[in-house]
Amino acid sequence: MMTNPTETKFGDPATRIAQTSHWTVLLRPKQPTLGSLALVCREPVQAFSELSPGAYADLRGVVRRIERALREVSAYERINYLMLMMVDPDVHFHVIPRYSGTRSFAGQDYPDAGWPGPPQLDAAVSLGADARDRLVAALHQAWDRAED
After folding, report:
1. Which GO molecular function terms does the record list (predicted)?
2. Which of 5, 71, 86, 98 is the most exposed place for a label (fewest CB within 10 A)?
3. d(CA 20, CA 132)
4. What is the third-level CATH fold of 5-145?
5. What is the Cα–Cα distance from 137 to 148, expressed in whole angstroms?
């Protein structure tokens, strides 16, 4: 399967945490909270109802591993799955770990500016290449440990 425009926009392959036959898990280049991800369907669909049965079935396992990995890396208190699809029409979710206060990673602070309300996507830390690569590596390792 070819990379779709939404995967490319979110930096694939440099930001890729994991990929299954139906989904790609990517680190968001702008981090409203530590470990914010984009979960992109690899099928050529632009409506959630158009996913194949296989993509729906695969989603469960992908979400379980995302939650385990993010709990390890960001110690989230809640997690938000936002399906916005206004700018990027391919089926995808923004996965935003939520927490009170601030989390730190590799010397950078990541506050949750919207806590306890809706996430503030514009109040985000923009990652440089080094910070991106370190966070991708940490999340990839946590993903590997999160296997069912």
Report:
1. hydrolase activity
2. 86
3. 21
4. HIT family, subunit A (3.30.428)
5. 20
